[in-house]
Fold:
Amino acid sequence: AQKVTQAQTEISVVEKEDVTLDCVYETRDTTYYLFWYKQPPSGELVFLIRRNSFDEQNEISGRYSWNFQKSTSSFNFTITASQVVDSAVYFCALSEASETSGSRLTFGEGTQLTVNP
Amino acid sequence: KAGVTQTPRYLIKTRGQQVTLSCSPISGHRSVSWYQQTPGQGLQFLFEYFSETQRNKGNFPGRFSGRQFSNSRSEMNVSTLELGDSALYLCASSFLGKDTQYFGPGTRLTVL
Structure:
């Protein structure tokens, strides 16, 4: 069965600091997808990135970057020069490609990020 | 394009009652999935509907059910509510199911 672990329950930083959110996953499938979502206090999950298991290229989008390493089953997320608006709960999620899994997302426990001014 | 919409946003019910939540997916999306979020259990998958058929189901009791209509709108129903059913219920839509899921704002259900 698949599993996602986000060991950091809460992180607190001061504005402009860089912060990395860790995500470790387990799956028996060779084809799978990894996601990061942001959940602000309003509750809606906001999609940030989707990665498939064959694409290990790191990705950068503005102040956000993601480091995918299959060898360590990790998919870490870095925010550079954090801002107060980045404060939210961040979820890492896994979806397996097998037909039986459908679109099921398995989520980690989430990391509460607080960016202080 | 309009995003995923969920109604109602907030709901208060008492134990033993039943409740129906509604989700309208992004236009053109055929897959709708439902998730329950609680402080204790986190985000858990309830079920997925695709082309009016339940394609996948999580580990929830039979009190939780759903359906999907021909326009891809989906409803989920919880019968005989229990205190533990208090949660944020999130709906997500995607084009085919295996692609990116986009979430709605959720329905916050409180069972008294």
Observations:
- The mean pLDDT of chain B is 95.
- The CA atoms of residues 49 and 77 of chain B lie 14 Å apart.
- The first strand of chain B starts at residue 5 and ends at 7.
- The interface with chain A takes residues 31, 33, 35, 42-45, 48, 50, 55-56, 58, 88, 90, 92, 94, 97-106, 108 of chain B (CB under 8 Å).
